[in-house]
């Protein structure tokens, strides 16, 4: 499976700078993985993770941007372990570096006296809710609340990200113009990432192992996870998914071998959807974890939503991506020079 750990504030387009003026089954795969356990004792409400040129980077900023990655990794690695920690730390470090670079560029932006149109910020927030939370605004707002962020605060974070993209575009506006074949090639490579993911549909077989059994106190989550892992091993050895589902799965689809047809992506949790839609058809995925139990899934058909046509709006964005590729080494040197002159203090 190819992992996709897109960060919450990834911007796909560009922005112009303007001068200042049976057992009854729960909904399939809907539940999100449980958040990390709360520490006992006094809790730091919003600690400082670091400073850049005197501007504060907070732990809440990092936690909110890390939340989709944490959710996906928690589902993907039920036992956590070294791989989980390595991938989570890698994602966290990338977010911290992104926030550091963002603040450096914001300082440059302020000197230009420019601004971003509010409607463009609104459009970007809507895109992020659609792509990162399957269009579920209530879940998005729950995540804001959990990280003690307001919508206005999130809009400010989004604006900052857009400023960074705009400043980068302005910095290298003299890049060689993209050739038609370069634009077409780039579009072909990324068009699926630009699609309307809310139109994605998947068919799959599923084995659901509940984390506990009210009638048997000896059935613990660890016992059930071990069972799910054993079933995954048997499937890898060639055992029939349908038969194992009929024997072991504890949901309304067990009698039909766990088969579910044409399930919209929006009916899945964002974490599970990110994993399943990146998995090859016919490959068993899991066990994955949610608060109710452990799930093994074998995608049988994946139909992706339609990509946008290469119209003027999309072409402009694709051309900008081509320019960035041509100037990536130049940009790396530029931002590194800014880092060396900045006052950066990140807590370990």
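-> sequence recovered:
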């Amino acid at each position: 499976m190819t992992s996709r750990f897109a960060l919450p504030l990834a911007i796909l387009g560009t922005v112009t700078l303007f001068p200042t003026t049976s057992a009854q089954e729960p909904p399939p795969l809907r539940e999100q993985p449980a958040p990390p356990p709360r520490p006992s004792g006094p809790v730091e409400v919003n600690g400082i993770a670091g400073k850049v040129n005197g501007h504060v980077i907070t732990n809440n900023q990092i936690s909110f941007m890390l939340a989709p990655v944490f959710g996906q990794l928690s589902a993907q690695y039920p036992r956590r372990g070294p791989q989980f920690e390595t991938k989570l730390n890698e994602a966290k470090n990338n977010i911290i570096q992104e926030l550091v670079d963002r603040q450096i560029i914001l300082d440059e932006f302020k000197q230009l006296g420019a601004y971003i149109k509010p409607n463009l910020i609104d459009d970007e927030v809507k895109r992020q809710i659609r792509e990162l939370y399957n269009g579920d605004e209530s879940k998005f707002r729950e995540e804001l609340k959990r990280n003690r962020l307001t919508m206005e605060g999130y809009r400010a974070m989004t604006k900052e990200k857009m400023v960074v993209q705009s400043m980068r575009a302005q910095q290298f506006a003299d890049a060689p113009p993209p050739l038609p074949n370069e634009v077409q090639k780039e579009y072909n490579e990324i068009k699926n990432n630009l699609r309307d993911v809310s139109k994605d549909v998947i068919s799959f077989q599923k084995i659901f192992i509940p984390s506990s059994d009210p009638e048997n106190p000896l059935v613990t989550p660890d016992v059930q996870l071990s069972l799910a892992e054993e079933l995954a091993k048997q499937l890898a050895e060639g055992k029939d998914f349908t038969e194992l589902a009929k024997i072991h799965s504890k949901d309304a689809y067990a009698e039909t071998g766990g088969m579910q047809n044409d399930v919209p992506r929006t009916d899945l949790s964002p974490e599970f959807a990110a994993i399943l839609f990146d998995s090859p058809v016919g490959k068993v995925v899991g066990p994955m974890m949610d608060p109710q139990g452990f799930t093994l899934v074998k995608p049988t058909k994946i139909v992706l939503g339609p990509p946008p046509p290469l119209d003027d709006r999309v072409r402009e964005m694709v051309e900008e991506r081509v320019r960035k590729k041509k100037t990536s080494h130049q940009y790396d040197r530029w931002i590194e020079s800014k880092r060396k002159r900045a006052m950066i203090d990140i807590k370990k």
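The CA atoms of residues 52 and 344 lie 5 Å apart.
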